[in-house]
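INTERNAL AUDIT FORM
Audit reference: QA-55
Scope: verify that the stored structure record matches its stored sequence.
Auditor: D.O.
Record contents follow.
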Amino acid sequence: MTYPIAMSILEKIIQDKKKEVQLRKAMLPASKLEGFGLFDRQTVSLKNTLKAQPIGIIAEHKRRSPSRAVINQDCSVSDIVEGYAAAGAGGISILTDGKYFGGSLDDLLLARASTALPLLRKEFIIDPYQILEARAYGADAVLLIAAVLSKEALKSLCASAHALDLEVLLEVHSRAELEFSLDAGADLIGVNNRNLKTFEVSLEISRELSGLIPEAVGKISESGLKTPDQIRELKKLGFDGFLMGETFMKTAQPGKALGDFLKKTRE
């Protein structure tokens, strides 16, 4: 079967991630992670924090991506996280994939040392071990991607996260993915506006799925969000939060960029 280039990238990421996880397990057993000082900390609800804000932005730390290459290699994690927090972020997303996004678990650890805001570990999670890592390094929530997991795996990984008092942001890219994953038990559902097959971005998918997500679940729009008008429109459609990274990270001062964006959105 022939896949478009973008889908081949996703498949390659998952293949590499499987190898990486096996190596990490061998290097640092789960029992060691459970002994980390942060493992038993009281987590903070990303869902409740976003719902309590007029405009709930999950501001992202992202150095690069397969679709854009380098975004920002110059700013320190601590400076960015502190800037986001001061500007009024509702939560912070930390990309921890190294090979394709330039992130690491150390980024998550530095972020935890820099803010009390809820932290989302954004990663290609395929194994419960990665959820243990998230807990040990200070996350409050983890990302699961419906496109790379079976229905059974989604349910199992959600249960693993909840057993550790971590919330789950479940990312979907289509109506079919939403319908097959609604009973997985996620706390938040993120509608990714980026087409995984073409990497094109359109808010139409957020508009289409907005009314299909249950009210009890936090509703997040992700990717391609650049203007206050987009946020205002999606807020009216019932979205509780907005995951944004590139819009801020491509600037020299991501925290200031977020602050300016929030000010314009409130006008």
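Auditor finding: record pair retrieved intact. Residues 1-6 have pLDDT under 50 and may be disordered.
Action required: none
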